Amino acid sequence: MAEQTDDAGRGGSLTAVQSPEEAEGQRRFDAIIAEDSRIEPRDWMPEAYRKSLTRQMSQHAHSEIIGMQPEANWITRAPSLKRKSILMAKVQDEAGHGLYLYSATETLGTGRDTLNDQLLTGRAKYSSIFNYPARTWADMGAIGWLVDGAAIANQVPLCRASYGPYGRAMVRICKEESFHQRQGFEILLELSRGTEAQRTMAQDAINRFYAPALMMFGPSDTDSPNSQQSMAWNIKRFSNDDLRQRFVGMIVEQVKVLGLTLPDPELRFDEESGQWKHRDLDWAEFKRVVSGGGPCNAQRMARRREAHEEGAWVREAAAAYARRQQAEKEQVA
Ligand SMILES: [Fe+2]
Ligand SMILES: [Fe+2]
Q1: Using CA of residue 16, residue 235, residue 113, residue 301, what is the dihedral sign?
Q2: How do residues 300-327 score in pLDDT, each as one tens digit?
Q3: What residues pair up with 161 in beta bridges, in sequence order?
Q4: pTM of the full predicted structure?
Q5: Which residue has the higher pLDDT, 122 or 4?
Q6: Which of 48, 64, 165, 188 is geometrically suited to a Cys-Cys bond with 141, CB 3.0 to 4.6 A?
Q7: What is the 229 CA–ligand 1 centroid distance (Å)?
Q8: Where is this region: Disordered (predicted)?
Q9: Which residues lie closer than 8 Å to 78 by C-beta, 6 or more apart?
């Protein structure tokens, strides 16, 4: 999800003046990338690579954390105990994804406090999709099926990202995301087999989340200047459009099982180009929502700041505990 807002880093191999150590580091870095191997935290890496990854990974972490909100709103209103416990587990998984990703980002040298500060002060972005409201229970289905589904399509190739800690975090995250997608699909399936009102509610949720989910892959490659550098560094493996195509191909089949439809009269497979043709996406809306003008941006940020303040005592207690442990260790030594 992070690619859509990632406007970081160009350059890399073409640093102007390098010391002999840097030149050697660059040579090793280039060789590791060329053999499609992994860069680890202690390896030398170009500043632009470090910066670009820090931005992408932290935006990804922020998206996981903010992404908990639309669904957390429904935990108390889940229609049964079973649904409530599944939804709680799912939202908790997202918190875990945020934590793995913050930890992985910290290995690049930027501390958690700084990353958090960037989010709370609005300097860092997160995925635009979480700025849309979750209006009905069926939205839990549409979010799981479409939003987590798009996340999987985006993230499976990131398991092979050249930066070791990122790739390894993604492996575990993707396993959990596939459970999320299934639980969303299953909610929609049950509603689609229910009463007329339930079918209508399921269809309405799909209608609202279809276009924003397609936009999760980011603008077309021609409007995504950093994609190429990211691909040259083996962070990104497929272009935004390629990933969107795969996703569309997948949901076209799955929606048939639901007996529902995608809100896109223009959707068809074009034999000639081998591409899915879908309706035009509103990129002006995308830009507006990602930069703060969506229906729920203010609410999401206010809630996050509030949660951060409410959690101050936990951070203080953890720091005091760590200090005491350290002092006891020193005494023993
Ligand atoms: Fe997640
Ligand atoms: Fe998820």
Answers
A1: positive
A2: 999 999 999 999 999 999 999 999 999 9
A3: none
A4: 0.91
A5: 122
A6: 188
A7: 25
A8: 1-30
A9: 84, 87, 137, 140
pLDDT over 70 (residue 2): no
Angstrom distance (rounded) from CA 225 to CA 184: 33
Ligand 2 centroid vs 180 CA: distance in angstroms?
5
Closest CA to 307 of 72, 143, 129: 72
Q: What is the pLDDT of residue 263?
A: 98
Q: Find the ligand nearest to 177 CA.
A: 2
Tokens of 139: 């939205």
Q: Which residues pair with 268 in a beta bridge?
A: 277
Dist. CA 65 → ligand 2 center (Å): 11
Q: How confident is the model at residue 5 (pLDDT cuts 50, 70, 90)?
A: very low
Q: Each residue of 62-85: pLDDT tens digit?
A: 999 999 999 999 999 999 999 999
Ion ligand 1: residues, CB < 5 A: 64, 94, 97
195 CA distance to ligand 2 middle (Å): 28
Alpha helices in the chain (DSSP H): 20-34, 47-66, 68-72, 81-106, 112-120, 138-142, 148-155, 164-192, 196-215, 227-232, 240-258, 283-288, 297-310, 312-332
Distance (angstroms) between ligand 1 centre and the Cα of 328 equals 38
For 283, residues 6+ apart whose C-beta sits below 8 A from its C-beta are 215, 219, 223
Is pLDDT of 212 > 50?
A: yes
What is the number of other CB atoms lying within 10 angstroms of the CB of residue 315? 11
- Best CA proximity match to 182, nearest among 129, 127, 143: 143
pLDDT tens per residue across span 96-112: 999 999 999 999 999 99
Kindly identify the ligand whose nearest atom is closest to the C-alpha of 100.
1
